[in-house]
Amino acid sequence: MKEEISEGRKKLEEELRHLIGNIFVPEAKVFGMVCGCTGFAADLRGLQYDDVDVFREKISAVLEEISKSVGVEPEFVYARKLPGSEEVVTLTARELCERCKKEFAGSKASPRPDIVVLKKK
Amino acid sequence: MEIFLVKVFTEGKKVVDKTFFVKESFPSSFGKAFLLKKRFVLKEKNLNDFYRTTDILNRPMTRLMVPHPGHFSALKEIIEAKELEEGLEEVEEVFMGGSPEVMGSGRGVLHAPLIDEIREQTEYAHQHDIKMNIVMNSTCLGGHHLTFEGYKMFKWYFSELNKADVDGVIVAEPYLVELLRDFPMKTIVSVLSYVDAPQRAKFFEDLGADVITVDTNINRHFPLLRAIVKAVNCDVRVIVNEGCLYRCPFRYFHYNLASHLSSLNQPRSPLFAPDFYFDKCINIRLRDPTQIIKSPWIRPEDVKEYEAIGIKSFKLSGRTKTVNWIIECMKAYSHRSFKGNLLELLDCPQMLRFVFYVDNGKLEGSIEQWKNCKKICNECGYCDKLTQEVLTSIK
Q1: Residue A114 and residue B111: Cβ atoms within 8 Å?
Q2: Which of A34, A106, A113 sits opposite B324 (nearest CB)?
Q3: Are B31 and B167 within one domain?
Q4: Mind listing the pLDDT tens digit for each residue in B303-351?
Q5: pTM for the model
Q6: Alpha-carbon span B199 to B382, nearest angstrom
């Protein structure tokens, strides 16, 4: 697992640099939440909402691939913006618990304004 | 006496007036004017005067203000949910954060709407007969508002909000309450003005408040609430689902910090504990779950007790929460009924719902105790006993 997470971080950074430019991925992690959700998340610097919007499909595909490699089914893939700005600070692929399927991912609108939904299964 | 909304009059997309049907009799001062018609047209402001003058407490005109996270698609979904389901007529207003470039607010800002977007969203809300309020309830402006630059900026921003047809602005700072007198928008005094006594309510009314949101710390102090309702002519509003600690020692400091962190006026060095107060608050409750029961939340079923003392305006807290959570809360409070873990409805702190289960059904009747409670907890012990009956840890 350790290797897959490190590889995933590196791969994401490389792909984003290839697509956009000088993007930095300081940290990637696999997480488990109290509600039952699990996921893969990567912290980012240098990425903006416009970049995500333009390369939505490609970024989502890379995240899905990394997510699967660490054993997380990417049911809900999203970017989180720094509130009130266009800076994207986290990319996440999440395997959802029953509650979050409804509460977090169940609305037609993005669940919160700082969340940019890239893919919803 | 009962009053029913009959028809909404519009000019283009803007609601200009409403027809109300009045059933049964009228107090004499209004009798001559309205008795013959039994159906009359009143502007809302006049209707409010009518209520005040006649001191009608049983009118079915309760108003619920719901949070809006800020993005347009969320507003559409909230309004769609309201319109799709019967029994949500009380939902009359939404509120969302303003621009952090102007000032921060009591909650984290997840969206920074520009004036054009506020205008667009307000227009949409009005098309659906929903009022739009903008929250600007920072508790610390660092003195900026008292500089000429600050004065001009706030004046300009209020003027732009007014041009955008915004219905009300929620502020905490008394200076801004006064500044808003120059605009026709409603001045809504925030819960962060900590209005907890008739005297303080009167101060704010005299400064220009149209609505006063009382300090949640007095949500269960019925004699005080009654006295505030009596002391002022403006609307008195309570927040129903805030789960903050009763008489929290961190409250003022937490909101001051939040006000800075949600604005451009940030601390100069990075904070070693940006969520210090929140972490303390959670830890206290984990160690002493009775504090969850003592928090001044109001069950959906108990809203009627507040209506009975003349409070008709209720606010749901939670503008940093997800759209679907907001919609579920809106339904529970509109229907005055909820089955399950009460912590599911509380805005803050939401994470406790994963640790504790508070059986809402078992809380039935507790309001009778709280209505008359002297709040001397060490002598009473009611909430300690109740906690044992209604609260369980989730395995």
Answers
A1: yes
A2: A106
A3: no
A4: 999 999 999 999 999 999 999 999 999 999 999 999 999 999 999 788 8
A5: 0.81
A6: 30
Interchain proximity A111–B323, CB inside 8 Å: yes
Write out pLDDT tens, residues A25-41.
Answer: 999 999 999 999 999 99
Q: State the complex-level ipTM.
A: 0.71
The reply to whether B106 and B55 lie within a common domain is no
Residue B42 lies in domain: 1-61
Considering CB atoms only, which of A103, A111, A113 is closest to B111? A113
Chain B partners within 8 Å of A110 (Cβ): 71, 73-74, 323
Residue indicated by tokens 């009956």: B389
Model confidence band, residue B166 (pLDDT cutoffs 50, 70, 90) = very high
DSSP-derived secondary structure for B236-277: EEEESS--PPTT-TTHHHHHHHHHHHTSS---SS--S-TTHH
**Residue B166 in tokens:** 């915004």
Q: Which of B61, B76, B93 is the endpoint of a domain?
A: B61
Mean pLDDT, chain B, rounded, equals 86
Could you tell me if B221 and B337 lie in one domain?
yes
Specify whether B121 is located in the same domain as B226: yes
Q: Compute how many other C-beta atoms are within 10 angstroms of the C-beta atom of residue B87.
A: 12
Among B12, B43, B61, where does a domain finish?
A: B61
